[in-house]
Design brief:
By secondary structure, the chain is of the alpha/beta class. It has helices at residues 21-36, 57-67, 83-92, 104-110, 167-170, 185-195, 208-220, 256-266, 277-296; strands spanning 8-11, 40-45, 77-78, 97-100, 138-141, 152-157, 161-166, 174-177, 200-204, 227-231. Helix content is 35%, strand content 15%. Strands 1-2-3 form a 3-stranded parallel sheet. A 3-stranded antiparallel sheet has the order 4-5-8. Strands 6-7 form a two-stranded antiparallel ribbon. α1 links the parallel β1 (8-11) and β2 (40-45). α6 packs across α7. Bound molecules: glutamic acid (GLU). Residues 12-14, 46, 189, 203, 207 line the site of glutamic acid.
Length: 297
């Protein structure tokens, strides 16, 4: 599939808690895809939202990955130390970015539409200037009007196939800089993926809905678009993605092989019996490559 010498992948956890079964699946998929393609696997701590970052979480994720035999290439990058890059990209957007004075409540009350991720579609209240008396809270990126050719984003997901999203109707102008002053995930991830030379993004399908925004932003910043692959996410009994917010348990790191086997099973990898972490990875890499071939046929 990809050019075998130039593959750069990454795992980009938010250090809001320890590695749990759900984040291990994303880590494993990105790791195996990098290994199967003889690529590099970078690690980026997405601690741009410092309010959600938990003390010690980054260290515990790194220690767990190490115990699980998942060794990253190069230095770990921390978003909290890269805000200058986000600022510079934001400046390059010029007048495409504009200040917005709307509160979350006002946007919800406008009820124009609900986006796939459950957020209200932004009604465009401040696109032509802040209403008198409203201070700027956040900064948003202007997306093309409905019906404009650039507003429809189409991409081929390596797992899910052809995907598309109408940004104007399904998302609206989206936030680049949040009301609390932090850079938004969408901007930080696009800047970092480009800066780190990421060619292949492999992550959970909970982020599928963000991909069109990221591709649009890459186009505005004249950055390359990586290949995307979104793996299924583990859900709880209520169908919600496992996350620290809904009480996902940390993996039992005393039994690393068990945690790996469960994640591999979830990804549909046929590995058979293995008795050590070091024996697990070559078998899992072959199983991933076979799965990829099945998907392509
Ligand atoms: N930091 C995000 C998360 O942990 C992942 C971002 C990404 O892979 O693009 O959900």
């Amino acid at each position: 599939m990809s050019n075998q010498t130039s593959y750069i992948g990454r795992f980009a956890p938010s250090p809001t808690g320890p590695l749990h079964a759900g984040s291990l699946v994303a880590a494993m998929a990105s790791y195996l895809d990098a290994k199967a393609n003889h690529g590099r696997w970078l690690l980026r701590m997405e601690d741009v939202d410092e309010a959600r970052t938990t003390a010690g979480a980054a260290e515990s994720i790194l220690a767990d990955l190490d115990t699980l035999g998942m060794h990253w290439d190069g230095e770990v990058v921390f978003q909290s130390q890269r805000t200058g890059l986000y600022e510079a990209a934001f400046d390059r957007l010029g007048r495409l970015a504009y200040p917005c004075g709307c509160t979350r409540r006002e946007i919800v009350d406008s009820r124009i539409c609900v986006a796939a991720d459950g957020a209200a579609v932004y009604p465009g209240t401040c696109r032509d200037g802040l209403p008198v008396g409203k201070p700027a809270r956040a900064y948003r990126l202007r997306v093309p009007d409905p019906g404009h050719i650039d507003e429809l984003i189409i991409f081929d997901d390596r797992w899910l196939g052809r995907m598309q999203q109408h940004l104007a109707i399904e998302v609206g102008d989206f936030v680049l800089k949040r009301a609390d002053g932090f850079w938004a995930y969408q901007l930080a991830v696009v800047v970092d993926d480009a800066d780190q030379g990421i060619t292949h993004v492999v992550r959970g399908a909970d982020l599928l809905d963000s991909t069109a925004r990221q591709i649009y932003l890459q186009r505005q910043l004249k950055l390359a678009t990586p290949h995307y692959l979104h793996v299924p996410v583990i859900t709880n009994a209520d169908g919600e993605k496992l996350s620290k917010q809904n009480g996902a348990q940390a993996i039992d790191i005393k039994q690393p092989l068990l945690a790996l086997s469960k994640a591999a099973w979830f990804l549909g990898l046929d590995i058979g019996q293995v008795d050590s972490v070091s024996a697990f990875w070559p078998l899992a890499t072959t199983a991933w490559a076979n799965l990829e071939m099945t998907r392509q046929s």
